[in-house]
Amino acid sequence: MIRLARVGARKQPHYRVVVIEKDRARNGRSVEVVGTYNPRTTPASLELKRDRIDYWVGNGAQLSDRVGKLFTAPVPAVAATPVPAPVAEPVVETVAEPADEVAPAV
Fold first, then answer.
1. Which end of the chain is more exposed for a tag (fewer CB within 10 A), N or C?
2. pTM over 0.85, yes/no
3. Which domains does the chain have, with CATH numbers?
């Protein structure tokens, strides 16, 4: 079975998505950790090893209700901030102009 195992401090839940035998406890020994889920971030962060989940489902593992909803949810596109191209500013070189010599006053 592929389900969530809670980790994290009290009142600060953070979950691991684990492959585990159905009869084991919620936080019992898992076969493999296939992702993480943090509902406290905005938006909630979800990292899944989709190829490993597909492998286990192909071998007969079932998704829990919650993991099934998370797995089928669309992957949010990361908002890529466009990086402005560097603008080449003209280099202004200052050239010392020859000073006009003034005849000394006598």
1. C
2. no
3. 2-66 (3.30.1320.10)
